[in-house]
Every structure is written in structure tokens, then in C-alpha cells.
Amino acid sequence: MPVDPSGDGLHLATACYYKIDILLTWNCKHIANMKKIDHIRRINAKLGLATPLLITPLNLIGDDDEK
After folding, report:
1. From the first residue on, what is the mean pLDDT of each consecutive set of 10 residues in the chain (67 residues)?
2. For residues 54 and 25, is the Cβ–Cβ distance under 8 A?
3. Distance of CA 46 to the CA centre of its chain
4. Where does residue 15 rank: exposed (0-12), middle (13-18), buried (19+ CB within 10 A)?
């Protein structure tokens, strides 16, 4: 997460605190980053917080070739 808490970190913390099911974001650098999601889940588990599904709009709608 970036050092500035008013952006990405605040969005994620708010989603975790309010037990949001899905956090839909285009931010693949800090939030919907596959390399960071496991780390976020482990930290939240230690804090007793839920972790929303962190996905991009493309993940949500899926690939047209799969239909």
C-alpha cells in the first residue's frame, strides 16, 4: 500500500471494516494485485477483519469467449 493513507489503503480498510463482499477496482498496483491479495488476507485474519473479493471489472464480467 502507498504511504498516503487517504487513498488505496483507506478504501481497502473501509471495505474490510464494513465487511463489504466485493471491492471492484481498476487499481491493480495496490489493491487487485494477485501478488498482494494473499498478504492482505493474512494481515486481515490476524486483525480479525474480513477480506472482500478484490477484483477488476473485467474479472467480474468474465471473458466473452467463455460463454
Report:
1. 66 91 88 87 94 90 63
2. yes
3. 17
4. buried
Count of structural domains, the chain: 1
Residues 6+ apart with CB under 8 A from 51: 16, 37, 40, 41, 44, 45
Which structural domain, as residue segments, surrounds residue 42?
6-47
Type of residue numbered 29: K
Contact yes or no for 50/17 (Cβ under 8 A): no
What is this structure's pTM? 0.71
The grid cell for 3 is 504511504
Asked if residue 38 lies in contact with residue 6, where contact means CB atoms within 8 angstroms, the answer is: no
